[in-house]
Amino acid sequence: MKQLPASIWTLTVGVVVTLIALWAGNHSGFFPEQASLQAPLVDNFFNLMFMIAVALFLLVAGTIIFFTIRFRQRPGDEEDGVPLEGDFALEAYWTLIPAVIVIVLGIYSVEVFTQMGGFAPGGGGGNHLFMSHHQHHEMKTQLVSDDPAENAPEFKAEYGLGGAGKPDVTVTVTGMQYAWIFNYPEGITAGELHIPVNKSVQLNIKAADVIHSFWVPQFRLKQDAIPGHDTELRFTATKVGDYPVVCAELCGGYHGAMRTRVYVHTQEEYDQWLKENQFAQNPDLSGAVAVNSED
Amino acid sequence: MAQAQLPVSGELPQVSGHHPTAWKWYDYFTFNVDHKVIGIQYLVFSFVFYLLGGLMAVVMRTELYTPDADVIDPNLYNALLTNHGTIMIFGWIVPAAIGGFGNFLVPLMIGARDMAFPRLNALAFWMLPPAGLLLLGSFIFGGAQAGWTSYPPLSLITANTAQSMWCLSIILAGTSSILGSVNFVVTMVKMRVPSMPWDKMPLFCWAMMATSILALLSTPVLAIGLILLLFDINFGTSFFKPDAGGNVIIYQHLFWFYSHPAVYLMILPIFGIMSEVIPVHARKPIFGYKAIVGSSMVICMVGLFVWVHHMFTSGTPPWMRMFFTVSTLIVAVPTGVKIFSWTATLWGGKIRYTSAMLFAIGLLIMFVVGGLSGVTLGTAPVDIHMHDTYYVVAHFHYVLFGGSVFGLYAGIYHWFPKMTGRMLNEPLGKVHFLLTLIGANLTFLPMHVLGTQGMPRRVAMYDPQFTQINQICTIGAFVLAFSVIPFLVNVIWSWGWGEKASGNPWRALTLEWTTASPPIIENWHRLPVLTHGPYDYGMNGHDTSPAIATHS
Known about the structure:
The complex is a heterodimer. By secondary structure, chain A is an alpha/beta fold. Chain A has two domains: 10-70 and 88-115, no CATH class; 133-294, Immunoglobulin-like (Sandwich). Chain A has six helices and eleven strands. The radius of gyration of chain B is 23 Å and the shape is globular.
């Protein structure tokens, strides 16, 4: 190969690949809308990796296809190829460069994870409605008789995403085949999650029967509900609206139908919702009826 | 053959007097101890199960053509997804790659007459048919429905009989895999021809070495987990019953301690196949022999310490999430080394567009996609969103279909002449390749988007907003199903009536090509002597031009 054209080619390919990768990284466009403080963190991190991935894919796949065409067997040529067994410098490059990339990504993911609150499970210590009881029947009875006064043992989440300080809203989430139940300290039991916008929300997550997984794609957050282990999620919703709550862990035949909604309200709407439901469900602690009607 | 047929005097003079020179067709249905028979038994058995597992996938994709569960019962859907995964892993890729190619090729490549423990070898194979029958039989009782991961408590309360059969089946398959692995390690350590030092051993054998070590270290742990599960279901223990003091997270650790390495069990032998196929059809020495050996070993070791990345959203404390994020990312480095080495092997070659080579090149590109999406999934922050979604389904199908299945096809096109003495039909092979490539990308590429946008995996019914993309995937799955037809026709026709293959139709340099096609019983009349490395194309005066390549 002639020197000059080769370097011009390399430069052109480099520029084109970089431009495509930069464009792709900013227009991945796969994600649903961002509705929590954590969502942009996840998206930006993903988009960075997507950008690197697009660049690497174009380079590697492009090289493979180029070599495959350029070095095809010509008719009648039965000779062997160039007897080249290795090149130390080249091999060192393609070991070290990916190593540096993954180390940087590793450090960056620790950083993102910290910002998301990943290092603080159990730190949030919210108000917890339930003892960490795991028996199925006791769960059920507790669901309908939550009395804020009786929450003697602390809710102890070992796993999840937490946060420092007292959350503005605490909701206990229980996954069961095939529904989510949301219990509020105000004595409300609901089949959908209602939360105020721009307030820190603490979910204490439990499972009544098998493992479920609480996922709101628009929040980019997911946490398994595990029988026998308390888990938690701390987040702040940033957009008024309603979003799907999806069960992401196989939990039986109707796993795919285990869906509900999360309603993100303005503070006033939320207060009103609280008041209405408190009144409707709780004047004399007869919440059992409401549970059945709302599933 | 120019290279390896220097006669060794006094070598087993009357060996051919006692044996038939070739096996009859019915020998392939018996407890035969010849490694070549066992290898072909593994391959044919596993391909039948591949078709069964593929059929299950087609039924599932048909169900997913519409958002509602309107084709089959959702419980049956779960049974299909559980058994699709189980069969593709334990009934197809593992037995085909390790049992099939491993058994057929390792003794031939190292110049041995058989495996070290031939009866053990046959025993290992004959554990698989009962394992397969247990899986199929479980459908009488509804089929195991808790996913191939079978997490308790779901697996404890769903279809108990079928779930127990599933456990027994996997324990059998696991035992078979342990027996096979011991055999491979001993064979390679003890039975190489004296003229073959470690650094002249073909890379497929090195890959089998890494695979076997990994299987020996990890498979017993899976067996432990499944035995405990079996006891919980049938004998009243409560290892994994949370309401009786059990711990469901422990199961996940036991399961993934095996099942992540299982991914490498399914890809390392395929990497070995790549390292054989590419140099032969590019007429080039493999680029970076030592780096490829080293990276197999590094993958084998690091692969043992990444399992928790399957549990980022379950019971995983923060430090563990971060430790396993970093260890997972590290695996990308040795894997990258292999990809780059094969790419560099193409440079300066004289590439033949044979079906084997096309599948190998297709694998390279598909695997890069799967590897890159794997890096994004390996980081805890992104995984918290992506875990258990269709993004994961897309990722592992790029690795296991785009990687392992493409590699198995490449291996079949490459070694079919050696195994059967007949050439496969090349034009049909190319049609097969094109259909497979199109079908695979049509099926699995859109799934990345599905998962990112919010569709969980393992669902028989989904939000109608995902309908359109699901329909594309389903059409892709039909193309994939159809793509098997030219392959089947090709194999069946060629096996019976195909063009006869010479001993070395590709003019390759590894030892399996120094004997007849198909090889005689006990492989050689006189053991070959190694006079050059396995990839010395265009080197050391070993010109492999056609004049001396004919050997019968």
